[in-house]
Amino acid sequence: MPAERLQKLLSRAGIASRREAERWIAAGRVTVNGVVATLGTKADPERDLVAVDGRPLADLAHRLRRKRYVMLHKPRGVLTTMYDPQGRPTVAEICRRQGLEGLHPVGRLDFDSEGLLLLTDDGELTFALTHPRHQVPKVYHVLVRGQVTADRLRRLREGVRLEDGPARAATARRLRPENGATWVEITIHEGRKRQVRRMCAAVGWRVLRLVRVAVGPLRLGNLAPGQLRPLRPEEVEALARAAGVRRPRPPA
């Protein structure tokens, strides 16, 4: 097998997404034959000893055959990462308590946001779900303070200008009032940092609570904060179709 870049190798093995793997490499957490790797390092998994935090990777072929897919209701106050140098709570800790080491989050949810977060060791599906060209919808229920008018909802649908470029909601509608605030539903196809919060601020709303309730065909349902459940094979297949993956590998 020819040598390949470490971030691609780790992603294909289901160890992490490419983006997460790049962060691990930049942080000096990945070694090849005992030498700390850089972003340009390549390795052959059949000849080289690749390790993360000193732990050798499990058999890659076995990992590729047995993929795991878990839905987590991420609570507020938890980081969507597998490692935090400041010691703040992470989704990795939730996974470890459930005996689910080796999974990585698909995309991100802000520290102060909550809701549906997919965890998997399927690097191929992760890449497809998070790539902008596949336009996988993400639905958020947002409790906002400020007037929820037809004009402001229209502005979200037509697009608002953010500091990193224009952003548009695929759908934006009013749901219901609550204690002087209003729940709205916003659907986006991107996943830029704090995008929904910044879009709300652009139309004059202050976000009090933000919950992601759907990713593609996957729905959060009644899953309580901090709880997780494995996806059913038909859910994995539906996600793969939404992301343009032709041959999904359902969980064993």
Descriptors:
252 residues, alpha+beta, Structural Genomics Hypothetical 15.5 Kd Protein In mrcA-pckA Intergenic Region, Chain A, Alpha-Beta Plaits, Pseudouridine synthase, 3 domains, 4-stranded antiparallel beta sheet, 8 helices, 17 strands, 26% helix, disordered C terminus
Describe this structure in words.
- This protein has 252 residues and is α+β, with helices and mostly antiparallel strands.
- The chain has three domains: 4-64, RNA-binding S4 domain (Structural Genomics Hypothetical 15.5 Kd Protein In mrcA-pckA Intergenic Region, Chain A, Roll), CATH 3.10.290; 66-132 and 221-243, Alpha-Beta Plaits (2-Layer Sandwich), CATH 3.30.70.580; 137-215, Pseudouridine synthase, CATH 3.30.2350.10.
- Helices cover 26% and strands 29% of the residues.
- The strands form four sheets. Strands 7, 8, 9, 10, 13, 14, 15, 16 and 17 form a nine-stranded mixed sheet that branches. A four-stranded antiparallel sheet has the order 3-2-5-6, with no helix packed on it.
- Strand 2 (30-32) and strand 3 (35-36) form a beta hairpin.
- Helix 1 (6-12) crosses helix 2 and helix 5 (123-130) packs across helix 8 (233-243).
- The radius of gyration is 19 Å and the shape is elongated.
- The two termini are 26 Å apart.
